[in-house]
Amino acid sequence: NVLWIAAAIVLGSCVNDKTYTQPVVQIIPKPNHTQINEGVFVFNENTQFVISSSSQEEIATLLTSQFKHAAGWDLNVSDKSHGKNVVELLIDESIEKEGYQLKIDSNHIEIFASSNAGFLYGIETLRQLLPESIESDNLKPDIDWIVPCLTIEDKPRFQYRGLMLDVSRHFFEIDYLKKTIDRLAMLKMNVLHLHLVDDQGWRIEIKKYPELTNVGAWRVDQEDKHWDGRRATLHGEKGTYGGYYTQEQLQGLVAYAETKNVEIIPEIEMPAHVSSAIASYPELACFNQKIGVPSGGVWPITDIYCAGKDDTFTFLENVLTEVMAIFPSKYIHVGGDEATKTNWAKCSHCKERMNAEGLKSVEELQSYFIKRMERFINANGKRLIGWDEILEGGIAPEATVMSWRGVKGGVEAAEQGHDVIMTPGTHCYFDHYQGPQNEEPLAWGGYTPVSKVYTFDPVVETMTEDEAKHVLGGQANLWSEQIKTESHSEYMIFPRLLALSETLWSPKSTRNWEDFSSRMETMFTRLDYLGINYSKSSYLVMH
Ligand code: TNX
């Protein structure tokens, strides 16, 4: 017996003395500075997470819950350290917001940050240092849960790192939005822009105007008998396709996003892309047109809000009051794109408005519209974002421009001292094809493979230093005319979002396609575990 016990002790120490090969560091987005040292830290069932404030508990749990699934361990999270074999979250006020430092030696892991965002990103980096099977929902018994000894210092290049989902053209469930938030956080991205209103559907409950979701959230299909080839003729009745979010659901989503350092920016389109609102309340249009909610990508649509009637503005102010109560973001996006103004030129209310305000063109009338909404938004302590059309006829004084028709609008806005978010169609439109058209699902058009996304730079070379400071960052836009399912949505987002995240986070000097594409390949294994349907066409541009 004594012999047997002695043998067991020897065996045990052999396990502890096991030599491990150092894992390769493959993180996306690439950290600013990585210094790799000799040795590894070995996680085991006694590894402890040590937090310095209770608000860090949720962040630590992101990783301990993965260990629960993949290793079957219940790792302890506590505010008292047992010394060795710990992952410690430590406040360091000198580190900038969203930045972090990660120090790994064979006994400890330390994450330093000044905010929960920094701790979250430190944990996300640690997650990517672990074997890919840490993402597994099932037990992986034969894995060495090790990470290399190293020091990482990291912070974002841009403060705004976004993704826009168009939930109007097709509706996506709240759970999918939550999953998307997790994926944004994994890539250290921090904005989810929700395109909640478009011609094809109004997707947010507004208590004062119930018809917006009784009628405006539902549309007839193009095959339907209520479809005349241009317009849905069904008016004031519920169509067959649609959906919307209740205010309660959206509040829950906002709270969820906050734990992942993701800001949700709501977009309430105006004055165009609003057939869904006019179908619900025809008096919002110049001629009280009775229309139905259209389906598909019918274009152009001339039914837009009347800029002459004061009631239009009262309606929009009431809508925004409810929207602002749900979303704590300092931004409200008011759209402003692609307004066909033929009705404005014919409408007596609009003509009266133009005379009264001394406006010489319908472009100036749109500028009046947006400026008036900006005054309301600013008076409520928020800031306005609009697509680059808001430059036409004179930009609203405090507006932030989202540049989509290339970077031109963004450059112009920065010259005028306005903040800019770059989302040029050439690099950031994820509704474009990403591989050979005959092998890819039907897309809106365009060709934007992952390799092209990787060349995106929100700062344009011709900009002065001051102008460049106005570039807050960039964003991918996923318009969903052709995207009916979650799995198709994932397919369009991945792997392109991996490339975008690096262009927005990592210093430009570290950019290297060969290096990135090899890290991306490793990341595919992680995406497989996460059940993400990413496009394999990227292999074609990689090799
Ligand atoms: C233009 S980009 C639009 C969207 C369409 C998209 C299709 C922008 C501000 N407006 O309404 O969905 O093209 O790529």
TrEMBL record:
EC nos: 3.2.1.52
Residues annotated as catalytic: 338 (proton donor)
Residues of the Beta-hexosaminidase bacterial type N-terminal domain: 26-154
Record keywords, A-Z: Glycosidase, Hydrolase
Domain Glycoside hydrolase family 20 catalytic, first and last residues per copy: 158-507
GO CC, alphabetical: membrane
Reactions it catalyzes: Hydrolysis of terminal non-reducing N-acetyl-D-hexosamine residues in N-acetyl-beta-D-hexosaminides
Record flagged with keyword Hydrolase: yes
One GO biological process term: carbohydrate metabolic process
One of the record's GO molecular function terms: beta-N-acetylhexosaminidase activity
Keyword Plastid: no
The family this protein is said to belong to: Belongs to the glycosyl hydrolase 20 family.
Protein name according to UniProt: beta-N-acetylhexosaminidase
Organism: Aestuariibaculum suncheonense
